Amino acid sequence: MIVDKGNDFPTHFHQKLLSYGRDVWLFREHTDRLTTRALNSYRGDIRNFEYLTPRLRLSPRDLRSTRLARPATLHFICSPTRALQVISEVDWDPIIIYEPIPDRCVPEELPTLRTAMASIDVLSPNAEEAFALLSLSSPVTRDAVQSAALCFLDFGVGPSGKGCVIIRSAALGACVATRDTGYRWVDAFWTPQDTFHIVDVTGAGNSFLGGLAAGLILENGDMYQAALYASVSASFTIEQYGLPSLSVNSESGVEEWNEDSPRRRLEALRQRQSGQQG
Prior knowledge:
Keywords: Kinase, Transferase. With 278 residues, the chain is α/β, with parallel strands linked by helices.
């Protein structure tokens, strides 16, 4: 991940990021500008996002001639118009995961989105964003989400329509839909009985799609199995403000997040899903 450090970037932030592994980050120093900062604020379930300092956009060109060049997966969040520009810069063959930016999830953006959808592999809005794009006013239910996912598939996602739509639906889970397999649901890892684990949902969508990207590599492109990784990834992000803790179990030597094993959570979620299907 590229981290653009402005002249005000706190040293303790730098050290904190390094604690997660030096190979994860590519730091770029900018002595002539401030670090891009933004504010997420919530009023009930309504989120507001605003930049506090001038933003510095990233594009696939920024990866060239770095050790992060030509990644196997590429996730980006932006407007549909910006997505077309990003896609035009991709001169290799990654799995492309596109997350439409919330404030551009309006019906007027749908024609441009449909153009972009033909060149991506995964489209993943959350339920409210999907409904807004499609001018749907119905409550968020599994039936309504499924209908929205199938509508996007009818428009065509991916080359030859072989892409995937994943609509993230908070406590309802995530609807994973393709033309070949129809739709399947993946539960949110934390159930309604586990709400005490949920502290801050900021970043859950990014974490979900980062987990999806990793799962697609580990599961040879299986979207449903990758979505299990995605759900587990998000489960760690929402347990606290900021990043989860990383440690190594002194007895097993296994890497743990928030003193729990991602592998354990993955297997627990798989068993839960298998039980529902059985």
